[in-house]
Write a structure and sequence with these properties.
Blueprint (H helix, E strand, L loop, with lengths): L15 E2 L2 E2 L3 E6 L5 E10 L8 E6 L4 E10 L5 H18 L2
Antiparallel strand pairs: 1-2, 3-4, 3-6, 4-5, 5-6
């Protein structure tokens, strides 16, 4: 019996916006709750009703898919932001290992 072909998901929309592209890791402020998030960019949304470019990313701090604005990306996170990011990651890992 032959092997089943793997289906690859092709993301709709652009692959790049400004200096950011799909797969880049970013630290930013989430739209849903206004808290800091960190993760890889999965989709870029340029055609929105308010003409503000957004992106979807897999947040390692919340453990879910989140939406953020490109203007909310933190280019150089400071020491306390890096500490908060690593603490949230460890809490998520500990929660998953229970």
């Amino acid at each position: 019996m032959g092997r089943k072909k793997k289906l690859l998901y092709e993301t709709p929309g652009p692959k790049r916006y400004d200096k950011w592209s799909l797969g880049d890791e970013v630290t930013c402020i989430r739209v849903s709750d206004g808290k800091m998030g960190h993760g890889k960019i999965l989709e870029i949304h340029l055609d929105t009703h308010d003409d503000i470019p957004y992106f979807t990313f897999c947040c390692e701090m919340a453990g879910s898919f989140q939406l953020a604005k490109f203007s909310s990306i933190i280019d150089k996170p400071n020491k306390s932001q890096k500490k908060r990011r690593s603490k949230a990651r460890m809490e998520l890992i500990n929660e998953l290992n229970k």
